[in-house]
Amino acid sequence: MKNIITISRQYGSGGREIGAKLAEKLGIPFYDNKLISLAAKESGFAESAFENVENKATSSLLYSIAMGINAYGNRDIGFTHLSLDDQIYLAQSDVIRKVAAEGPCVIVGRCADYVLKDFKNVVHIFIWADINYRKDRAINQYHLPAQKADEEIIKADKRRANYYNYHATGKWGKAENYHLSIRSDFIGIDNSVDCIIRYLEFGERRTPTK
Amino acid sequence: MKNIITISRQYGSGGREIGAKLAEKLGIPFYDNKLISLAAKESGFAESAFENVENKATSSLLYSIAMGINAYGNRDIGFTHLSLDDQIYLAQSDVIRKVAAEGPCVIVGRCADYVLKDFKNVVHIFIWADINYRKDRAINQYHLPAQKADEEIIKADKRRANYYNYHATGKWGKAENYHLSIRSDFIGIDNSVDCIIRYLEFGERRTPTK
After folding, report:
1. A175·B180 Cβ contact <8 A
2. Chain A residue numbers touching B128 (CB-CB < 8 A)
3. Looking at residue A70, what is its pLDDT?
4. Is B11 at the interface with chain A, CB within 8 A?
5. Which residues between 170 and 209 in chain A have a beta carbon less than 8 angstroms from any beta carbon of chain B?
6. Is B152 exposed, middle or buried, given 0-12, 13-18 or 19+ CB atoms closer than 10 A?
7. Of the residues A95, A210, B125, B166, which has the maximum number of CB atoms within 10 A of its CB?
């Protein structure tokens, strides 16, 4: 399998687990938080600065608006003029491009689909699920208190959308950003992995248009 | 297979062909323009009034705004107070619900996913494709002049989005509206049909959460 696979996912949809199982089945590296550590080492930032980067996307945006800063237009005036969050994003993006250049892998989150938009052989996946399924996973697998689960799911998705919509040009969760989008609770985690593999196999047999 | 399948699709993505082949493979009825004829007969409107209903969605919206009319809030003051387009939409929706009540089938377009949102055993599919693939199909299969293809594709998608966003509460093309969303040009029409069937089979073996 020659593809690099990016996975974007709603909170609690099982997207991370699907990505990990997919990487295992394909025998290729899997990156999520590992990526953060790698990025931290590469850039010299402390790892702790990376940990809540998604949480900071909104305040970073507000800060940028207040300061009249555009994260992209600003690059030419020097790295140090960017906010800490933007510097972290750029450092992470470098790592994503580096691991992608090394060969097939699975990368979860961190706008990887957008960062790798000009790479060949990249397939983008989106995983979502019914709210009740996500609530169950949040309570039973992430050990969230039941009365906080709904709120946390909504907030986590908002953070992901904010983070993506701030850094990327497309919109998080729009079907045409992804080769394949799957509602995971309808078929389960393992079958979702199977669906992705089948899609990748079909794609390998054809000459992709991009 | 117990499911009713709705298919939403970008213009030129092959969504209609995928729907037709899917229905044939599953041995269940297929509805697209047939539905319009059915609706026309049911409601007593002339078929010609239905033909360009998507084209009229925008003007209908402007008309509604100008008249201070809300298509939904207005239902209780009588069918005849609605614009012609809204009346056609309601007549079509009745037909969609009627054919869905009869059993498994494939329905392409016409906001069927939204119309059937409260039905059980409905699976929603979205088909999209790379712009070059859609352009090729527009020229070679729908016989559009090459110099008009780009413009027509963009306009057709805008009409579909307008039509959907006016009548439904969600947003056309948002991944979480659909159980499965597929980029068709990457794997081809027949493989897209295969992917949908696999997804449906996996779903049948589980107890769906909804």
Report:
1. no
2. 175-176
3. 46
4. no
5. 173-176, 178-183, 185-188, 191, 194-195, 198-199, 202-203, 206, 208-209
6. middle
7. B125
The interface predicted TM-score (ipTM) is 0.81
For the domain made up of A4-205, the CATH class stated in words is: alpha beta
- The domain spans of chain B are 4-205
Exposed/middle/buried for residue A76 (C-beta within 10 Å: 0-12, 13-18, 19+): exposed
pLDDT digits (tens, 9 = 90+) for A8-47: 999 999 999 999 999 999 999 999 866 756 765 666 665 5
Gap from B136 CA to chain A (nearest CA, Å): 12
Host H or E run for residue B61: helix B57-67
B75-126 tens-digit pLDDT: 333 445 677 778 778 888 888 998 899 999 999 988 899 999 999 899 999 9
Which tens digits make up the pLDDT trace of A174-204? 999 999 999 999 999 999 999 999 999 999 9
Counting every residue, how long is chain B?
Answer: 210
> Would the CB atoms of B173 and A175 count as touching at under 8 Å?
yes
